[in-house]
């Protein structure tokens, strides 16, 4: 697999101005060695509270990220020395009855992945086949070559990864049946093979699983049709009544694209907790927690005729460790479906 974000012909068609996915500009994150990662934060925490938490280190800026039921932040402290002091002072400290996980910024692509220091993947009931797992070449391609602990490499080679909740066959079947009336396109997934370019939209860190758009002419046509329709409907669609927001509701919500802003996109309500809804952006394979009052109605079947733009994939021989790959293009070969989860396609790296 090659890691490529600079192909102008591919990228020009996928991300557009003002953050709307009409063309792609591969935003990604800039590496900052002066940033500290702060994990296991409360969902309702404000940026001001995060800054106050690190007030002793004179924080310059904070980038809060909420992904499903997880909340974490990257805080720029201005120097590597302050980052070290913040880790020593705050890592493991209780904050709002939560044990903080504080470490160097995981946006850095030059760090050698530390499997033992990172949070575990979500617990699920099914496990993927170990067939096809091999050396972690993707990590080496994303970072300068460095001495490798052979014992750790062998552990990675022998690893078995739990299939993430949002990629399990039972979950995907339920989502697709409730969102789409016509599922005839689903049968074509098993026949997809060969060389491909994948625009990564979401990853499960420290695992081989990720969501991506398979770049084809049909994808470009579907994107143009879908986003044009949603742009026209955005102002016309009413906000949902509180009582209407429940598991299985089809709706419209703002999807954030980092520095490139946001756009309204299709989503499905997975769960609700008080005034918050856990939704799945089906065109990006991304879970998010969103205020109930910010959801718009999108229940007409007219908005659900175009299949999801993204689908789940699994690297055959590597794992993904850096969020920098999100919104970038991976090149390689689709080799078939994962044995235990027929909706997940296996992807082999380019040599």
From TrEMBL:
SUPFAM superfamilies: RNA-binding domain, RBD, Tudor/PWWP/MBT. SMART domains: RRM. The keyword RNA-binding applies. Residues 34-107 form the RRM domain. It comes from the Eukaryota. CDD domains: RRM_TDRD10, Tudor_TDRD10. Keywords: RNA-binding. InterPro entries: Nucleotide-bd_a/b_plait_sf, RBD_domain_sf, RRM_dom, RRM_TDRD10, SNase_OB-fold_sf, Tudor. One of its GO terms (molecular function) is RNA binding. This is Tudor domain containing 10. It comes from Rhinopithecus bieti. The gene is TDRD10.
